Amino acid sequence: IFNKPYGVLSQFTPEHGHSSLADFAFPKGIYPAGRLDADSEGLLLLTSDGALQAHISDPRHKTPKTYWAQVEREITPEALAQLRKGITLGDGPTLPCGARPLADPGLPPRVPPVRFRKTIPTSWAELVLKEGRNRQVRRMLAAVGFPVLRLVRRAIGPLTFDGLEPGAWRELTDKEIRSLRF
Fold this sequence. Notes:
The strands form three sheets. Strands 1, 3, 5, 8, 9, 10 and 11 form a seven-stranded mixed sheet that branches. This protein is an alpha+beta fold.
C-alpha cells in the first residue's frame, strides 16, 4: 500500500509535468489496483496479483472505499442525506453511500496548500463508496453544492494509510491480503 501524495499520477509513466509511481522505488512487476487522480491523495494498492487487482477494481465486488473530503462551506445534514440515498450524475444514478460529517482529521498539510478564503469556511465529510466512477466523489459533492478543495482516500476495504506518511509505502502482510478477498 502507498500513501499517494498530491500531484502524483497513479501510473508509472510521468505526463504533463506530474511525477509518477516510478519515482517511489516500488518492486518490479506491480500495478495499481484502481486509480486516484493526480489532484487526489491517499491510499493506493499496488499488486502483482491480477486476481486481487480485478477484485479490488471491479465494481461488482463492491469493495468499500473511504474518502475524506474537505469542502467549501459547512456541509449540511440535507446534503449528506442526499448522498446517502444516491444521486444522479451525468453518467447515471450513483449507488447509495455512507456519508457523514467529519471533524478535521489532522492530516499533514498538502503541498501545495489548499486555497484559503477568509470569507468562506471549510468542513470535512467522509464518504464510503462501493463503486468508483471517474472523479465520482468530487462530482457527487459538487452536485449537492459543496465543491471539493482536498480529497483523500482513507481506506480500501479494511486497509488504511495509518502509519504511512505521504509518499511512503509498505508491503502487506498475508493476513491483510486475505482480508481483501472478503
